[in-house]
Amino acid sequence: xxxxxxxxxxxSVQEGDNSIxxxxxxxxxxxxxxxxxxxxxxxPQFIIDIRSNMDKRQGQRVTVLLNKTVKHLSxxxxxxxxxDSAVYFCAENIxxxxxxxxxxxxxxxxxxxxxxx
Amino acid sequence: xxxxxxxxxHKITKRGQNVTFRCDPISEHNRLYWYRQTLGQGPExxxxxQNEAQLEKSRLLSDRFSAERPKGSFSTLEIQRTEQxxxxxxxxxxxxxxxxxxxxxxxxGTRLSVL
Lengths: 117, 115
Description:
Structural class of chain A: mainly beta
Helix content of chain A: under 10%
Oligomer: heterodimer
Number of helices of chain A: 0
Number of strands of chain A: 10
Structural class of chain B: mainly beta
């Protein structure tokens, strides 16, 4: 399958510090990337996205950086808060197979972020 | 609120039993997806519906799995003769396009435990 790894990478940060979560993708043809946040007992929630013609995109307290040369994405969270504790997934949007074009999201392995009060 | 309701939230069943999950988008969306998520991993694509047509099925979807979307509204995912390896979270998502953004909105999922 597209998801790999049985052990979830973890990141612990102090409340108020900045967090950086990294992700590598494999498909050079991917042109759209998304970060999702998943809290315990909930489905993934959209945070921010970026198209391949951009290097950086900012949202509220979050910034996504894209390095197409090395196929690397990062999510930066400013002034991390306890409510940011969750598992974060990067995802690629690819075109699905079939006679009708549609979008399919392929998730990478997640990173578990723990915020220390 | 993501606009996607899934029922039941939890299902415990014995091996060999059949189970059915339901996904109800609050409003009409022509694109609907099912994913499976096991502990410590990201969601894995299972199948995609455009309206009532099932356009793609992952190789993860064995013959014991079947999904339907009658009338292009709600969707059901049925697993026959469940096995312990089917234990996972089953997620439903709808797809919304806003300008250049393509965003999938997920329900809270149905957690299946096969004993």
